Amino acid sequence: MIATIVHVKVKKEHIEAFIRATVQNHEESVKENGNMRFDILQKGDDPTQFALYEAYVTEEFAAAHKHTPHYLEWKETVQEWMTEPREGVRYNAIKP
Amino acid sequence: MIATIVHVKVKKEHIEAFIRATVQNHEESVKENGNMRFDILQKGDDPTQFALYEAYVTEEFAAAHKHTPHYLEWKETVQEWMTEPREGVRYNAIKP
Questions:
Q1: What secondary structure does DSSP assign to A34-68, as a single string?
Q2: CB contact, 8 Å: A57 with chain B?
Q3: Could you tell me which CATH class the domain B2-92 is placed in?
């Protein structure tokens, strides 16, 4: 399994819309071949900070996600709602 | 679901031992009541950096983990292998 933690900072006034758009992305992403996780996390002490925890069986499945209509729509939709560019950190999973 | 991402930096010479000890902790932690995730992640571009992604159904289940023998043993075992104190970041999950 490979995993990416994507850190996103969202403008306060767009938190609700960001959650709605990201939940839509989640609902489709978990149906993708090779998807193992697509968890949407909101920071406990700062509701403007989110982490998306996305994990796939292989690199190929993760790469394919970037070409899906739901990912492309999400990327476009949320762009103006972030206070700075989102940052993805890539990990190799030891377990599972 | 609530989730904690624990960031750990490990001394190069202790990476293998750290992985072994953490896998043991993983094997027991996933059997705990209320556990949903206990993923061990190694950073793609820096094998000395790890993230533990631990998620539980509720705060109470997460708190109970801290009292288990396997957690206490892990905590003690890995202490000297880290280059700096580990840092846990707490999130509330929106999905799942």
A1: TEEEEEEEEETT-TTEEEEEEEESSHHHHHHHTTS
A2: no
A3: alpha beta
Q: Tell me, yes or no, if the pTM score tops 0.80.
A: yes
Please report the sign of the dihedral spanned by the C-alpha atoms of residue A44, residue A46, residue A48, residue A51.
negative
Domain range annotation of chain A: 2-92
Instruction: Determine whether the interchain pair A39/B3 forms a contact, defined as Cβ–Cβ distance below 8 Å.
Output: yes
3-class DSSP assignment, residue B53:
strand
CB contact under 8 A, B42 and A94: yes
Could you tell me the pLDDT band of residue B42, with boundaries at 50, 70 and 90? very high
Closest Cα in chain A to B23: A95
Interface ipTM above 0.90 = yes
Residue A52 forms contact with B (CB below 8 Å): no
